[in-house]
């Protein structure tokens, strides 16, 4: 396998809630533990990365990886509004130190989907106060840890809320309902009775969703969550990974800008960026306008808010195909991953090229990978994806790193532990780690 150039970061990514375990103050913990949860199982101890991070980082280093993108958990740092936990700051200081001791560049993400439960109780990501609250949390962390960091991603997949809103708007529109009616019993009944082909597919969005629940269970779960957050109406639940208004979409970008301002005031040399969930848009003749519109919604309309960022975090797993009428489809007979995506490792290089047309700063692939029980397929995915990225570098695109998703098999949100994204397998009965061949394959591409 060809190696990446000297200084190019080759690593893997995780998200705190998916790997650490016992994130008891977060909004996800609340949603996982109601009686009729939409989650197929709770995160619980996850894969105990909180206590075993030294072993996990050492395995990365021994395999040859040179970077680790991980997230700091807001709900741990600020479990109650305005009350910060210095013990948790020290935990993340130790994680960063462990990275450096093992020759691993730490890339910190300040928000990866999960938020403190108290934030949701006060309106969450549709409340304009979230901008200052997020910036205040970021300031607290960076004041204490910024001297140890070179890279910070403010928010992971800042466009995820809009993607979910688009899917549900299309779904509800096919039944004559509106997105605001999603918690209404009649609308929910229509959803349950809708033709199968009109329903959103779990592979339509790059996050683990559980769309297999019955209408009654879903309704009960929504009501239980509202009560747990102290809300009267389930429509008032605005987590980061939920439907949003156009205003809520822009609030995320304002939170990013506020956080970047705080970071730069404290440590001007830290490179700051954001990550977006993107697809490789591939139209047939006649589908070009639909593909261009989708790309604009996923990426281009955020450009005014990120144009001056130091880097952009590109995250892609597959492509989206458009027929002559502009409808999205999955080609017949293609290989699918456990997540329902098409196996299409060429997507990430195509996405990087598309991003580079408009974004003129550095680019880092902050997530790319596949869920599969067959590690030989993961290895093929990595080989094809990285070969395309090396061609991007040869063509002069300022690509600075590749972070594979994920370092280890973990908690894939509403789907639980069934999705196998990891370079490392974890036996959750005893938390034993076993490196897969794909870990060593990726590590062999780094030049130290």
TrEMBL record:
Coiled coil: none annotated. Keywords: Glycosidase, Hydrolase. Signal peptide: none annotated. One of its GO terms (molecular function) is hydrolase activity. Transmembrane segments: none annotated. It comes from the Bacteria. InterPro entries: GH (IPR017853), Glyco_hydro_1 (IPR001360). The keyword Aminoacyl-tRNA synthetase does not apply. Belongs to the glycosyl hydrolase 1 family. This is Glycoside hydrolase family 1 protein.
